[in-house]
Amino acid sequence: MAASTQTSLWISSCKLYWSPNSPFARKVVVATKEMGIDHCVERIETSAIPTMANEVLSALNPLTRIPTLQLNTGEVLFDSSLICEYLNEFSDGRLLPEPGPARRRVLKLELFGVDIMDRAVVCRQETLRPESHRWSGWVDAQFDRIGMILDTLDANVPSLSPDLGTITVGCALEYLDFRFRDRAWRSKRPRLSAWHEQFALRPSMASTKHPE
Ligand SMILES: N[C@@H](CCC(=O)N[C@@H](CS)C(=O)NCC(=O)O)C(=O)O
After folding, report:
1. Ligand 1 lined by 151 (C-beta under 6 Å)
2. Cis omega before residue 97 (within 30°)?
3. Is the CB of residue 66 below 6 angstroms from any atom belonging to ligand 1?
4. Which of 61, 89, 100, 129 could cross-link 68 (Cys pair, CB 3.0–4.6 Å)?
5. Does the beta carbon of 65 sit less than 6 angstroms from any atom of ligand 1?
């Protein structure tokens, strides 16, 4: 769907600090693509690693996390959910419906996806610790929790329409494939797996894959 000229003017010259490895950043990029405004947002690749300083990012966002969106007014937005809420202003509510049951459904789905991402990202960080400091039981416990969310999604497969919920879940599942291929989630969840195979074909998803 093409963005109107007016929308392009509002959002043009925004800068998105991101990394192709971040599922949260990908969620925002996919949302901009679904809304046809990705060409208005300049992407600035940066790395956000908890143990390393990133002075440029910290100066913009005291959380020192990506995604971070700097608007052309100088205002800075952070957290993928807040950024997507802002982007929704340009989507006629397609990303996030008006308050009510439909919005709650989308937000709940988003939370499933965010929780998978939160747990998977900290598990990934665990793999970067020195061997003697890793706690495999803790990682396994995170994956037990992730497994319960996946089971719930398998029993209640989302629609294939792109909104904040489905985009987040789609990005979360692919992050699992990207970082934890050895923890196969698909075989026991055929419905969710089939959903993901379809959703991943969307140009917004296919063009934003994590690096090999
Ligand atoms: N709740 C945040 C999470 C963002 C996040 O944790 N991003 C990671 C990269 S995937 C990060 O910036 N980590 C830096 C750090 O932990 O210092 C969101 O939805 O944007």
Report:
1. no
2. no
3. yes
4. 61
5. yes
Which residue intervals of 35-78 are DSSP H helices? 55-60
Cβ contact 134:146 at 8 Å: no
Query: How would you list the strands of the sheet with 41-45, edge to edge?
Result: 41-45, 14-18, 68-70, 76-78
pTM confidence score: 0.94
Residue 65 alpha carbon to ligand 1 centre in Å = 4
Range of the domain at 13: 5-88
Asked if residue 188 and residue 142 are part of one domain, the reply reads yes
Question: Both 182 and 116 in a single domain?
Answer: yes
Q: Does 178 lie in the same domain as 115?
A: yes
Query: Which amino acid would we find at residue 105?
Result: R
Indicate whether 54 and 139 sit together in one domain.
Answer: no
Q: Which of 32, 64, 88 is the last residue of a domain?
A: 88
Ligand 1 lined by 111 (C-beta under 6 Å)? no
Handedness of CA 69, 74, 76, 81 (dihedral sign): negative
User: What tens digit of pLDDT does each residue of 106-161 get?
Assistant: 999 999 999 999 999 999 999 989 999 999 999 999 999 999 999 999 999 999 99
